[in-house]
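Narrative of accomplishments. A recurring question from our advisory board has been how the design workflow behaves on a single, concrete structure rather than in aggregate. To address it, we present the structure tokens for one chain from the evaluation set, followed by the sequence designed for it. No filtering or post-editing was applied between the two.
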């Protein structure tokens, strides 16, 4: 059973390897054909007169530049869209900042009172009590009730 399993795995690997080799051969054949076409085109241009060779070269360069130009145009459009989006976001944030500044200017007294209350609360929380507690005798029932709850 163990050898059969190994043999089956080996056959699977061999089949995969053969498929890969076949795919690579097909790629090589396709590349050879493309190379032959390019060589023939090159030889044909060499057989042409110098004027026609220059014209052919210019046509190829024009084609390349046209494609490059289209790519750049596409990139420019994308950047312009992004710029519009960012300008809209900037306007929204500027409006929020103005609203926030206006709200700050309207209630400075209220905020100061709130900040003082917060400071007082923080100061009370930061005190570190140690030792015995001093209290009035009449506050004892209230104190016990608060300690229990």
């Amino acid at each position: 059973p163990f050898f059969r399993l190994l043999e089956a795995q080996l056959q699977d690997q061999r089949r995969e390897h053969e498929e890969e080799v076949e795919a690579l051969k097909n790629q090589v054949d396709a590349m050879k054909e493309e190379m032959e076409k390019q060589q023939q085109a090159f030889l044909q241009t060499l057989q042409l007169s110098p004027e026609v060779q220059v014209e052919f070269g210019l046509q190829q360069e024009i084609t390349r530049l046209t494609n490059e130009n289209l790519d750049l145009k596409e990139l420019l459009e994308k950047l312009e869209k992004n710029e519009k989006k960012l300008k809209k976001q900037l306007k929204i944030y500027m409006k929020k900042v103005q609203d926030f500044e206006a709200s700050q200017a309207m209630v400075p007294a209220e905020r100061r009172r709130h900040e003082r209350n917060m400071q007082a609360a923080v100061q009370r929380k930061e005190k570190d009590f140690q030792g015995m507690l001093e209290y009035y005798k009449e506050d004892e029932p209230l104190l016990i009730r608060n300690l229990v709850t």
